[in-house]
């Protein structure tokens, strides 16, 4: 049986892509930056331009627009300008008529479920992974519940962490807890655990199958 095709826009190192592949999709990633460790077919280029030209070729489309403008970083450094692409990307996705997913940080202007490492038993000896990410979908996804107490949470907070957060994981710990063994530290800092999108992908593939 031919696998349904999923397009992963702004794919980075492929954390989201792995989850969709595990859920049963044939995945292609697109990113403006080269991704030498990306584990699936990859196109280097502008995600929005690729979506306009090729979005109709895929069964489901995922997008992870840059998150910096929606994160705590934007509040801490209001003088820094970061792109805010969610509204534009949402409109472009809706125009394709395809089932879609938009992923970003918890503060982002999305309407959907929030996933956390504790929902998937992601933990090391020092605590549960607190890696909250929001997913807006054009189809129903059930919202699980967080299982970790706040004091037992550890996190991966990008490049260097943010003041006031819980302990940041080192690269080895981050790779272990997120079950990602193909990325370097910088790629890990921007990645999410692939079990998140394996969960989302389970709902998406049922939509494709009707």
Strands of the largest sheet, in order across it?
3-2-1-4-5-9-6
- Succession of helices and strands: EHEEHEHHEEEEEEHHH
> In total, how many domains does the architecture comprise?
1
Please give the count of helices: 7
As for the CATH topology, it is Rossmann fold
Mean pLDDT: 86
* Biggest sheet statistics: 7 strands, mixed
Oligomeric state of the chains in view = single chain
Strand fraction equals: 15-25%
Unreliable residue runs: 159-167
Radius of gyration: 16 Å
* Helix content range: 25-40%
Gap from first CA to last CA: 15 Å
Q: Quickly name the level 1 CATH class.
A: Alpha Beta
The helix-and-strand class reads alpha/beta
The dominant shape is globular
What's the total count of β strands? Answer: 10
Write the layout of secondary structure elements.
Layout: E1 5-9, H1 15-23, E2 26-31, E3 42-44, H2 47-54, E4 60-63, H3 72-76, H4 86-96, E5 100-105, E6 113-115, E7 123-124, E8 127-129, E9 133-137, E10 153-154, H5 171-178, H6 185-190, H7 194-209
Parallel strand pairs: 1-2, 1-4, 2-3, 4-5, 8-10
Antiparallel strand pairs: 5-9, 6-9, 7-8
Helix pairs in contact: 1-7
Description:
- The chain has helices at 15-23, 47-54, 72-76, 86-96, 171-178, 185-190, 194-209; strands at residues 5-9, 26-31, 42-44, 60-63, 100-105, 113-115, 123-124, 127-129, 133-137, 153-154.
- By secondary structure, the protein is of the alpha/beta class.
- It has a single domain (5-209), classed as 3-Layer(aba) Sandwich (Rossmann fold).
- It has a 7-stranded mixed β-sheet with strand order 3-2-1-4-5-9-6, with helices on both faces.
- Helix 1 packs across helix 7 (194-209).
- The radius of gyration is 16 Å and the shape is globular.
- The two termini are 15 Å apart.
